[in-house]
Specification:
The chain is of the alpha/beta class. The chain is about 20% helix and about 20% strand. The protein has helices at about 50-55, 75-90, 100-105, 145-150; strands spanning about 1-10, 20-25, 45, 65, 95, 115-120, 140. A hairpin with a 7-residue loop joins strand 1 (about 1-10) and strand 2. Helix 1 (about 50-55) runs parallel beside helix 2. It is globular and about 35 Å long. The relative contact order is 0.16.
Amino acid sequence: MRVINIIKDSIVDGPGLRTTIFFAGCPHHCLGCHNPKSWSVCSGIEMSSNEVAEHVLQNPINHVTFSGGEPFSQNEKELIHLAKELKNKGRNIWCYTGYVFEDVVNKEVLNYLDVLVDGKFELEQRNLSLNYKGSENQRIIDVQESLKSGHLVLLELE
């Protein structure tokens, strides 16, 4: 896995205190992207999913957010292993992706995600008052309810 940074105690990448993993590599290249350094697959450092999990689990209370770059650009087996390990340790996992849910619904990693924030960042739909997303087109999806019900279920934010 290529990791640009791991930020502890984020309050903007989902509810509560979260550890956010910024993965390298993104095919979307969204105009106005907040992290264009993440586009290159050569950015950051190579880490195994075990190394990333060990780093994240040092903080016993934080939940986790996968960001980037594009998390789905990582080695799928490594991403699944990481998500499974974190979920087995009781972590709530959010994932930001430029893909839409309908295009990744068959990815095994979704079995371990709680929330997916989907859709490319669209500069013309940017809205700074939105919680946990940057543009109006993006959706905050309750992954487990969506998988159980067979249709998309948006997360109700308080």
